[in-house]
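Board notes (copied after class):
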Amino acid sequence: MFEYSKPIVELIKVSIEKHGLWQTIFAFLILFSIPILIWKLPEIILAIKS
């Protein structure tokens, strides 16, 4: 079940060792929020304009 997530877990472990926990959490939050932002961008722009 978790076979596909092993590389991601390894990446997180290495990232935490190199950069620290909070920087890793921050980086992954940014990484995952970019596609959501792009997907919702037209709605966000409309909300700002109105």
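Comment from the instructor: The chain has two helices and no strands. The mean pLDDT is 85.
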